[in-house]
Specification:
alpha+beta; four-stranded antiparallel β-sheet; 9 strands
Length: 222
Amino acid sequence: MLTVVGFRLGNGNRQMTAVVTESGRLHRAHGPYGAPGRASRPHTPVRDNPVHRHVAHLRGLRSRYLAKGYSDELIAGACVQLELEETPPPPAPGRAHSVEPSWPLLFRAFDAAVPVAPGGTLEDAINRFYTTIGAPFLPRRPDRPAAGGRPAAGLPRRVAALRRALADGTAVSSSPRLAVGYTVTADHVRLHVGRAGESLPRQDVVELHAALSAWLHLNTAK
């Protein structure tokens, strides 16, 4: 049995499905409504704690596609067990980059295993996923905007507005004119150069925030 967690969003015409498996692979598929879609090459396990890293990517994908207009939560979140083995077969000689034929099967099995009315949120499904595979985790609490739409106590108005945007699933990005840019979501801070980029660990985000705050104080406009 293979335990997976995932979601599906749609924009009225097309849908996107994303799934993380217990071995730390992130799978995605795109296609029209009512079809499993075309499976992309999965993101393989990376570094330490690959499951946790790709679950963070799963959250980031949901935020990005919501911002792109994929507002139909066709599967808000589901943790299911599939009768599949994820161990990939060795590639044929000279075809190290060929598509694994098992990828489409994973999405068909996911569709069949998700209850007709799954209920719950993606965070609920992630919590069940971690519990099922025995991975340590801290349950996340929803970050709600300040009551009445007013800025949270002690926060400048601009910061409070961006905080509300992040809590609603909107990504905050730098100008596309910049050669080196950033994208901030509720789940990660990502720096990128062209199409290449990397998400920063929380401690590095804290250090970057401190450095930028120090620079702004040092260079206060007179």
